[in-house]
Fold this protein.
Amino acid sequence: MKIVLELKRFNPEKDKDPNWQRFDLDASPNERLLDALLHVSRVLDPTLGLRKSCGHGICGSDAMVINGKERLACKTLIKDAASGEGAVIRIEPLRTMPVEKDLMVDQRPFFAHYRLIRPYFFNPEPVTAKERLQTPEERSRIDDPTKCILCAACYSACPVRQEKNPAYIGPAAIVQAARFNEDSRDRGFEERLPALDDPNGVWPCESLFECTRVCPRGIKVTWLINLMKRRIQEYKRSFQAETSKPK
Amino acid sequence: MDDVAVHEYDVVVVGGGGAGLYCALEAGRKAKTAVLSKLYAIRSHTGAAQGGIGAALGNVEEDRPEWHAFDTVKGGDYLTDQKAALILADEAVKAVYHLENIGLPFNRTPDGRIDQRRFGGHTRNFGEAPVKRSCYAADRTGHMILQTLFQQCVKQNVTFFDEFYLLDVLIDGNRCGGLAALELATGKVHVFRARAILLATGGFGRMFRVTSNAHANTGDGPAVLLRRGLALEDMEFFQFHPTGMRGLGILITEAVRGEGGILKNRLGERFMEKYAPTLLDLAPRDLISRAMLTEMRQGRGMKGDGSADDFLLLDATVLGPQTIAAKIPEIAEFCRTYLAIDPAVEPIPVQPTAHYAMGGIPTDETGRVLGDEKGRVVEGLYAAGECACVSVHGANRLGTNSLVDLVVFGRRAGQSIADYAARAGIPPVPPSVADRAVEMISRLRGAKPGPSPEGIRDRLQEVMMQKVGIYRNGREMEEAVREVANLRHEYREVGLRDAGTAFNTELVDILELGNLLDLAYITASCALNRRESRGAQAREDYPERDDPNWLRHSLARLRGDRVDIGSKPVDVSTWAPKPRKY
């Protein structure tokens, strides 16, 4: 089918402002949008900047804004993005991060926020058996957040980050915190607490659900953020109850 | 060297996948270590591995590392070095527990231990019946390994250079003193001086048209060493995974069959009964891919015309929706996204897909790169993971053993490289060291836009797919060698069309294509040279395995346009080669 790719271009080496460029091409409805973009970058205009790697939604390289919504280009088929013959697909780089070139954004702020919550397993207790035991039920509690591929779609789509508070650590970092805090084997809750219980931690979230809507992995992101808020409140309550006990 | 930035580290690791990160974690405890990745490290292709990591934990049924080692040797059609296979199987157990201990969320048995499932070619008691050996985290085991190792690197504050592309390895005499890399953000060449470096650049399946490999799998490490005059081992052995998603090549994990899925032809027959009566759909991959091709050539594919896009069916409906949701959720999602089908209701259309390089950079069991037939060690140069050839996979890798290879040999290389770095200095590096890399880029920048790199890539992938694929013969491979040679000549006329310096992705694309061309040239030449059938090399003109003449590893060097192929012996010290039946 015939489609039009309308790409937001910006090359800081030569452009003062972003501009839109149209490419007419033939694409099969079942093709990945990434394939169409690669046709542009490899044949029509090799100066187009974009990232890609696995091509099937697991590496997280090609998140971008497609028709106004954050998606992975390799997990979006032409027929899902083009309404019909001759349809225009508008593609922009992710939001809330500086554009490096065309569809490539600087992911360093995203990873800096990710690192703030100490996204790693923490348990200083020695392992007595060969593995730390965990029931299938306990394991299933962390299944959802372990799916995260750090593509930054949620970080880009978050209205709070876009409009109010770019210092908010964002949904992905909190999902990572949930992945560990809810792991029955982990003992790092207090390690992660300062970054989460911070004015730029979990609290700026207003439950607007954009993160959940755009997550290409189908993670219940907002639900996990609210779970983390609740865990902090529970911790504080039990802490207060503990310290206010008569000696 | 005006425009060249210079860095100094004890150890520099190239590649941020499982092998690179494991090495960096180990080495980083003792030595000042940096990891270079041409992507962001967390985007590496280890993350795409699905079904599991094999280790004889015996959590579900009796198992022994010795059985795992034997299966690995037999799976490799006796081209596997047996001492290395024993190390692999032994240390797999330790490695899996270590991964669990640092947080990897494996699926669990009802009593809370790591759950295990069946996988192709993994058997109990030397081939009696399938055994549950694959430890898994749903069907995202590779994703969880990559995440877990990356998290530990964050914890340990490992230094990352993201989006640095390997241009050259600096070898003076027999000593490696660092490398040159291109910084994507600036277009600048950087020199990394080091006491030792490790290459963990992954596979190179992008030389084939239909592949499960990422765009980034272009064999940068092996290609660079090839151009530095070093030999590559067993490059003729390239694995085609039986179940790629039709047309797209996306991997459909063997775990689908491990959980009970069945391959069927257009008559609805479970055709593996004919080819592997004992292991059936859980036979090794080379055997199943050949069986599939035979079925399609004999008109029993779903299209029935035996054409390149003919396909067969993988029936997972017998698993039921609950098992699918719990054990292979990613596969279900791929099917919905790319095929608009529900595998609980409809069978999945599949065809073999180029998947894994058994061959690569020759190393010993501590990751040290071997420079010649006699096992001369190249000082300060290490390799691990898919780009390396220990050789534990021989002529055909068993499912789950790629992840085992990464963690076992990534870890061993990390320990040995740290020891080496503690006693070696940083070799002096002459000012001209980055010249080759700088020249290569200046030439591309200076050249007129000649032939289209896209056209060359397409033709390369097509010729490799058609003529150096699952079934091979001398006549077609001679044509393939000639065609790839011509493509390499054409490539020399390619010039950059994007004149920019910052984030010039075209430059990286073109350099990667050069690597694929050199590796394909070696692959086709080695395949033509080996006049027998063994593992993944199935020759119609030499259909039998020929131990007296060919029970040996190939070692191939590139001398300009000529390929020199030598050999070295295979370690068969534990199990004598036997005919391979399943």
